[in-house]
Amino acid sequence: MSPRLAKPKLSKAADPDPTSTRGVGDRHVACAPLRLVRDTDRRVALYARIGADGPTVAKQVRELKTIAGQHGWQVVTTFKDKGTTGTEHRDDRATLEALLEGAGRNEFDLVAAWSVNRLGRSLQDLCGTLGELHAKGVDLYLHEQGIDTTTPEGKVLFQMLDVFTKFERSIIQERVRVGLARARAQGKQLGRPAVSSAVEKAILAKRAEGMSMLKIARELGVGSSTVQRVVGTAEGAWVSS
Q: How big is the CA angle at 148 (ends 143 and 152), to the nearest 5 degrees?
């Protein structure tokens, strides 16, 4: 009978430290701790927002709670956004911003929403939101699209959206350039319309009294850039003369 081989003992120094530095060539790069989360331990935040069509907020929350129970997720908080208009920007949706702040504080591991159009009103806006979640290590579940970024297939979503965002941005920039070139060819004046001569005289008079440009702009109800342009033009003409 062969002798039993003793199991090698690992000292604490040999245990991998997820927050330690790892050598990359001649450098050492700090590695963030790995977040290994089981389905039964996964903390989920529900996000519901009413749209022009689709289910009510109450129905969205009810269905998402059912799905969370089926997966064994622990619902830790629910965000309900009252935004309904299609022109609403993400900066005007305080509830969505609160969700992103909670993700940054590591209050949950997953965000569950009814549909992809609940998280953004444009592709660029949507990609910005998903990019922030991804950067903070928070996964995403979208019920209608059947997307779950805890799976390998779902993680491809972030890569695809980044490509589409860059594509949309390039299209917008090209359209702006074409529009400006067309306007110049047609002899149209670009930029803000010039103020009247009476306003220009008032700006120069107040400036001669020693008033600041910001105060002039407030008193006359014009933009500070307009005051700067008028004053700069007058001072340039005075120097050249």
A: 155
Q: What's the rounded Cα separation, in Å, for the pair 148 and 151?
A: 6
CA nearest to 51, candidates 114, 129, 123: 114
Cβ proximity of 63 and 55 under 8 Å: yes
Q: What is the pLDDT along the chain (241 residues), one digit of tens a residue?
A: 555 545 444 444 444 444 444 444 444 444 444 444 555 678 999 999 876 566 788 999 999 999 999 989 999 999 988 755 444 455 457 888 899 999 989 999 999 998 877 787 666 677 778 878 888 889 989 888 888 888 888 778 767 776 776 777 788 788 888 888 888 888 877 766 677 888 889 999 998 888 888 889 889 988 888 888 888 887 765 544 4
Strands 110-113 and 139-142, bridge-based pairing: parallel
Q: What is the DSSP letter of 14?
A: G
* 79 contacts 119 by C-beta, under 8 angstroms: no
Taking each helix axis from N to C end, the angle separating 123-135 and 94-104, rounded to the nearest 10 degrees, works out to 30
Contact 46, 75 (CB under 8 A): yes
Alpha helices for the chain (secondary structure H): 57-71, 94-104, 123-135, 152-185, 197-208, 213-220, 224-240
